[in-house]
Amino acid sequence: xxxxxLAALVRELQDSLDRLDAGLPVGKVSAIGRDVVTLDxxxxxxxxxxxxxxxxxxxxxxxxxxxxxxxxxxxxxxxxRLRKALRGARLVGxxxxxxxxxxxxxxxGFDEAEQPTRWHLRHDLTGRYANLWLLTAEERVVxxxxxxxxxxxxxxHAPPTTGPAPDWSAMTPENLPQTLAELEAFLSxxxxxxxxxLVREVVFRARxxxxxxxxxxxxxxxxxPQAFYLYELPEGPEVFLLPLSHETGLPVTTFASAHEAAxxxxxxxxxxxAQASLRRQWQHAxxxxxxRLERARHKLDVADTQAGEAEQYRRWGELLYANLATARRTxxxxxxxDYYAEPPSALVIPLESPTEDLAAAAQRYFRRYQRxxxxxxANAERRAALEAELSAALDCERELAGAADEAVLATCVQKLxxxxxxxxxxxxxxxxxxxxxxxxxxxxxxxxxxxxxxEIVVGRTARDNDRLTFELxxxxxxxxxxxxxxxxxxxxxNPQRQVVPPAVILAAAELAAYFSQAKQDDWVDVRVxxxxxxxxxxxxxxxxxxxxxxxxxxxxxxxxxxRIV
Length: 565
Hints:
Elements: H1 3-18, E1 24-25, E2 29-32, E3 36-40, E4 48-54, E5 57-63, H2 77-85, E6 90-96, E7 102-110, E8 116-124, E9 131-135, E10 141-144, H3 180-190, H4 196-206, H5 211-223, E11 228-233, E12 236-240, E13 252-255, H6 258-307, H7 310-322, E14 328-330, E15 333-338, E16 345-349, H8 358-401, H9 406-419, H10 435-441, E17 446-449, E18 455-458, H11 462-472, E19 478-482, E20 490-492, H12 502-514, E21 524-530, E22 534-535, E23 546-547, E24 551-555
Antiparallel strand pairs: 1-6, 2-3, 3-4, 4-5, 6-7, 7-8, 8-9, 9-10, 11-12, 11-13, 14-15, 15-16, 17-18, 18-20, 19-20, 19-21, 21-24, 22-23
Helix pairs in contact: 3-4, 4-5, 6-8, 7-8, 8-9
């Protein structure tokens, strides 16, 4: 986020404050992780102010998306102190520091003695020095979000600068070179930290006039933007405050509001990061799968090498039988005449013990020979299946590497879920934000309205059963399954954690019996357990469950409940 874009965001927020007599009241103050604070300013449009102090990813913008709060146990102490200071306060001003990427929000509130005072929330968006500071009216530090060197109640000092900031206003016509090649190199060095596409825009516009006219026109548009342009660059989405005339083939979305452009920018970046994470997870799963197959093939190679010595066992057995009368026991085994050698010579064959019977030793070597022969035949069949699976793994890797856009990647991931072993697949994270996410996850499952209004959900496939039991069901939901028969998982949803009536359990048991391989029986035993008593077996197939505590009910296989569409 450069200084021009940050100035536009601050100016837009200040304009909305200027239209109000007493500013914006501060509602909820919450944290997202360790480096992000959100403020509910009770705006009519319902937007939250996001203040992120991540190194190299600081953010300042309004968003319609409701923030996902972190656990209070992991909340930074700064947030609790900020929440106390801003209780009953109103945002009355927002100012950007000149030539710095720092914003100061001023709140009219109350001190600890309930006397009116002013609080300042300083947001430094300066790379590794990014931070949020709670300051008094005299700009003394009360608390900071990230670790800092200093003591409370000391004067605030701006973070050190890593280098000279790009100063567009310091340029003069005499400074600018007249040739385009020199102009691009000069601006790239003089405006260090400025996006290189803005430099190219100045150079591109200079082709139709003088370099100074192009530079001045671009500078004016950056200082007073009329719209905000979200470009999908090859390296990722980026917002510019003017149209890029030299980039005509890139997808672009135009916004009238700076905060709407920023919210869209970060939403696309998060989506892009999620897609990249998904790709990395599946790439790791495919790599692990391929290496597992390669290790199995190496073990087959070793087994085949050992089994290739089977001919020696057969020869030793035959030589022991041929030399039963003339063999001589030695310290290393038994010495026989090797009739396979040319000319015949003495050969020492090892024994398990100095007193082992020679005929028994010959039988032992014949058994080893037969076992080695069977191993070679079995390994040949296993090798064929292993080579086919390894070829499929390599095809999956190439297909994933070739999935360029989101739609192709989604199709590829769907195929991978059917090919990659279940124990290697990335686990789907559990729902985190309530009913909206949960309802979306219920798609593809059978849903019934049971007695007394209880909702009963039935899986369709093994993967649906696994998702229903281990991702959607809550600890106090009831889980049912036909005893000793393959079938669907059935879950009675119990959000109120009450005792489920027997009529509801019986109705769900009838569904569990009906959607099982025992549906033709008159009566079926059905296991009932709370979800918290279930675990997924290690390296188990989809749908497999380990039950610690359960009880059994008998039910008729039938589908009598109304469906929920």
